[in-house]
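Continuing the batch. This is chain 6 of the set; chains 1 through 5 are on the previous pages. Same settings as before, nothing changed between runs. Recording input and output for traceability.
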Amino acid sequence: MKFLGLIVKNIGRNAIRSILTALGTMMLVFVVTLVWAILAFLNVALSEKNANFKAIITERWQIPSQMPYTYASTLCEGAATKPDDVRPMDSMTWQFYGGSIEKDRAKRGMNNVLFAFSLEPIKLLTMMDDLDNLPSATAAVFGKSVKALQDNRQGIILGRTRMETLKKKIGDTFTIYSMNYKDIDLEVTLVGEFPEGRYNNSAAINRDYLLAAMDAYQQKNGKPHAMANKSLNLVWLKVPDSATLGKITAQIESSPLFSNPQVKCETASSGIAAFIEPYRDLIWGMRYLLAPAILVTLSLVISNSISISVRERRSELAVLKVLGFRPNQILTLVLGEAILIGALSGLISSCLTYGIVNFPPPYGFGGIKFPIAFFAAFSIPLAALWWGPALGAGTALVGSFVPAWGARSVKVSEVFSRVG
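Output for chain 6:
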């Protein structure tokens, strides 16, 4: 404890330098934590599960996928046509409906645009990632929103951020003027909101409403809507294991029912990887260039600070040797100062980062706004609370080792000869 007390006293002897070193460490740990949080999230999204796979079915040769809605019922059964064919555990269809609450095209912007998933409402609770395993209290509240959407065909569920951007509240009725379904404008009533988190910027409408609107268009105009034969964008299937997935994939891709256009079946992680493909170079740079460069910079910052401290204290270090301090004790003393600064500043930085990024407004940012694939924001994982101290202590150890070894090697005779 006396040795630790000596380390703390030495840190406090030049408070300004110690504070500046700590602030530099905190800033760099903050950036690395953000980068690692995004990479960790993507690793989880792209990793294959051992059970309860989710497969995604899309058009084989076109992005965005546009399939006839007549495919839906057969694909949801995994193209099973015989008694011994394999069927999925659960399924859902997706149609993307985009529009704006502003009728005047010249006034449309990000503050009034809305992109909604058109789907069967009950599937929000059984098939949507992160919504199918909500805590019981949250699930009960969100279940009421889902039931309201199921009961009210003209309902809509919004994420909290999108609701605030559009300046809408539960019970409001408004019209969405479509951008991808020309002349099919939907009047909707806000009946609920998504739980805080991943779907803050999302919206969901009842698929029956969109399908009925397309039927009404055909009756009114005497011909099908231009999107009538290509409104189905995705089909999701849940299967118990990889063997079942392989059998269903074979059933779907060999079926003559899906020849025009052809479809493909792949794991959800593979489908997400396709959306992330345009960001591949950016993610590679974050992983192999940015993060290592920051760690090297952090080591240099600490190395420079400790080097200055050792040069200023050469006489003091010589006195310590005269008083009986062994070289390894002096080495430990200098390393201890650097590691303590690095660990404490890293811990403070990671705690602040976790709170500020994850807490919803007005106390935080509600996640890292880095929307790719179907993810609106990335949160900081709980593991980041030990990333900070580990980063700070690790880089401090690496950066301070050379100056600490120099302090260990101080020769008493040389120091005092210069003083004399």
